[in-house]
Specification:
The protein is an alpha+beta fold. It has helices at residues 24-33, 50-55, 67-75, and strands spanning 11-15, 42-45, 60-64. It is 33% helix and 18% strand.
Amino acid sequence: MSEPIQNSELTAIIRIRGSKETRYEVEETIAKHMHLTRRLHAAVFPKPNLAMIQKCKDFITWGPISVSLLTKLVEK
């Protein structure tokens, strides 16, 4: 049986800008690696790659997410 996920281990990443104004390298990182294909999409990562976040910092926002909030988001 796997251990429960701790609250501080989860990071939510939300895309806040569209693809029209992004460079190809940044768009590829956001769309292919983070799976954020449209504006206002979110993804949850257990341990995100900080280099990818730093590269895309102008187009995304991120922060820790609790398991209870994640459960509510999935239910909606």
